[in-house]
Design a protein that fits this description.
The complex is a heterodimer. Helix content of chain A is about 50%, strand content about 20%. Chain A is an alpha+beta fold. Chain A has twelve helices and ten strands. Chain B has six helices and ten strands, in the order βββαββαβαααβαβββ. The mean pLDDT of chain B is about 90. Helix content of chain B is about 30%, strand content about 25%. Chain B is an alpha/beta fold. The chains are: A alpha+beta, B alpha/beta.
């Protein structure tokens, strides 16, 4: 019974730590998905007040020309990002992240298309919606282009369906041409959220980004640096890290309590056997090794069950039409959970064996 | 085995109790020495010190050339493992192990391969009449059988000192007699000493020497040549 309790405790602790760890990584990764989906760009240029890709401060359109004039820039294209409401003729609606990409090059769009192609966005009123958005607006219906809907009371036609990575604030992502995006979400005088840049092949992206900043006074970061900065901003300015940290710590505490209590009960129940072992010459170190090796076997079984449950959960929820699309169990989270479980059982072993270490083997002579 | 001026006190201050009070004790290889006396006279404490489980507060104990006072905790542990075999009143077999595994424990914990240790333990259990019970667990054995397994565990690593604490107290008369016969046959050798702590005067006939204790001291020792009793 104690063994079952111990395995259950370790499994539950592993499940809690790895599932919440995976959730945390998945959630903060969403904040930078738009950046990682725009693979052609190596540098993102933005207003100095812009902190993340999710909440840009728009710039004047003329900034694009200034960026194009900087040495080391191979090409530079505009990108606008805003939020808007979509509504179908049947009355279903959802909020979406709108990404308007350069009319000519269509740079900045995801490369993963399920139906249609990037070129289809050149048609009038054309938008590309991700399959999650389609499923929300037309639940149960097969994916199909040609459907008409309203975006902020303007007509739009689904010309393509993408497999874009979900956004952070609004999981549904809609791509359209920049000119079309400005119709759907007017930006006033300032109509430019970002300038996407590719540096010339023989140059270093970080150097070119620095040069753009120095020349234009705008904020310019390499794609990787902007991803990191976006995630850092989300971590620093939301309660996400604290909330998940509390739950993960709770998982570790549950593991420590269950293991500690069970091991202590085990030691108390077998105190006489430990005394016999000490009487016949087994050292404290050897006893620690014996119990620790058993504890590691139990930990392995419990961890295996817990991590299997966790990965099964993520396999179940990480589906194209799921709201939890894009959530997965990174191997680093699994490895950290394993290390935490190992530390928990070893700590519990050492703490519970303190009584054995101090045990007088002469108690074996008492009846 | 020579012990001189052994003192042991338990507790501190006003509540402390002197259990051994400058007592001397001798035991010889090739003999079975009984340590007898009323409850609380210090028998168990004395054998705990002589078998390197407890340290004396004062006095010297030399066992087969080893001065126990000078040994570190780790060395005492090693000394017990190599030099002493224990038989306890409550048998103290490990419930998760079968008879052969229980008897093999001292060999396994000192590095012998499990299979070889089990074979050697099985041979000894065979001599003790337990050939049919090698794979039985302690709860499947009678009290007498459990004590024979405990004797096998005490002898299997060929120790120089056998210490038995009330080995017949948990057994009926016939089983106790049988256990003492086994101990007499297997434990007593020219290079080995056996010390038996007992209240059971029915088994005094197996002793070569009897040390009587009272109030924390060995007050009298009688030589009782074993042969004379038969």
């Amino acid at each position: 019974m104690k063994l079952i309790g111990l395995v259950f405790g370790i499994s539950f602790s592993t499940l809690l730590m790895s599932q919440q760890g995976g959730f945390f990584i998945g959630l903060i990764s969403r904040a930078a998905n738009v950046i990682s989906d725009a693979r052609e760009a190596t540098i993102w240029v933005m207003d100095p007040q812009t902190e993340t890709v999710e909440g840009p401060t728009n710039m004047r359109a003329t900034e694009l020309l200034r960026v194009r004039g900087v040495e080391g820039v191979l090409w530079a294209v505009p990108l606008v990002r805003a939020s808007g409401a979509i509504r179908t003729a049947e009355g279903r609606s959802t909020t979406a992240s709108f990404i308007g990409v350069d009319d000519a090059s269509l740079v900045g769009m995801t490369g993963r298309f399920i139906a249609g192609a990037p070129e289809d966005l050149r048609s009038p009123d054309a938008i590309a919606i991700d399959q999650l958005g389609f499923a929300r607006l037309w639940p149960g219906e097969p994916l199909a282009t040609g459907k008409v809907l309203e975006v902020n009371d303007r007509r739009a036609v689904i010309a393509a369906i993408t497999d874009a990575a979900p956004g952070f604030a609004a999981p549904v992502v809609v791509y359209t041409r920049l000119s079309q995006a400005l119709v759907y979400v007017p930006g006033g005088r300032n109509t430019l959220s970002f300038v996407l840049v590719r540096n010339v092949p023989e140059s270093d992206a970080a150097t070119v980004a620095r040069r753009i900043s120095e020349t234009t006074g705008l904020r310019a970061l390499t794609s990787q640096a902007f991803e990191r900065a976006t995630i850092d901003y989300v971590l620093a300015n939301t309660g996400i890290a604290f909330s998940f940290g509390v739950v993960i710590a709770l998982g570790a505490v549950v593991g420590i309590l269950v293991c500690g209590l069970t091991f202590t009960l085990f030691v108390n129940d077998n105190i006489r056997q430990f005394a016999v072992l000490k009487a016949i010459g087994v050292s404290n170190g050897r006893i620690l090794g014996m119990v620790a090796s058993q504890a590691i076997v139990v930990a392995f079984i419990g961890y295996s069950i817990g991590i299997w449950l966790s990965s099964a959960f993520f396999d179940g929820v990480n589906q194209p039409l799921s709201d939890l699309k894009g959530f997965w169990l990174p191997w680093q989270v699994a490895a950290l959970s394993a290390a935490a479980v190992l530390a928990i059982v070893l700590l519990a072993t050492v703490v519970s064996l303190r009584r054995v270490f101090a045990l007088d083997p002469a108690i074996t002579f008492r009846g | 085995m020579v012990a001189r001026g052994i003192c042991k006190r338990f507790g501190r201050g006003a509540t402390s109790e002197i259990v051994l009070n400058r007592t001397d004790f001798d035991a010889r290889a090739g003999e079975m020495t009984f340590l007898v006396g009323p409850s609380g006279c210090g028998k168990t404490t004395l054998i705990s010190i002589l078998s390197a489980m407890l340290r004396a507060d004062e006095g010297d104990a030399t066992v087969f050339g080893a001065d126990l006072k000078t040994l570190s905790g780790r060395a005492l542990s090693r000394f017990r493992g190599e030099t002493v075999g224990f038989v306890f009143q409550q048998f103290n077999l490990l419930p998760a192990l079968d008879a052969a595994e229980n008897a093999a424990v001292p060999l396994i914990v000192h590095g012998m391969a499990t299979g070889r240790a089990r074979r050697r333990a099985s041979e000894l259990l065979d001599r003790l009449g337990l050939a049919e019970s090698l794979k039985k667990f302690p709860h499947e054995l009678s009290g007498g059988q459990q004590q024979r397994v405990a004797i096998a565990r005490a002898l299997v690593h060929d120790p120089k000192l056998i210490v038995c604490d009330e080995p017949t107290a948990s057994l009926d008369g016939a089983s106790g007699h049988a256990v003492m016969n086994i101990l007499r046959t297997l434990a007593v050798r020219p290079d080995r000493a056996a010390i038996i702590v007992t209240h059971d005067d029915r088994i005094f006939q197996f002793a070569d020497r009897i040390a009587f204790m009272a109030d924390g001291r060995v007050v009298r020792t009688e030589k009782r040549p074993f042969e004379e009793m038969h």
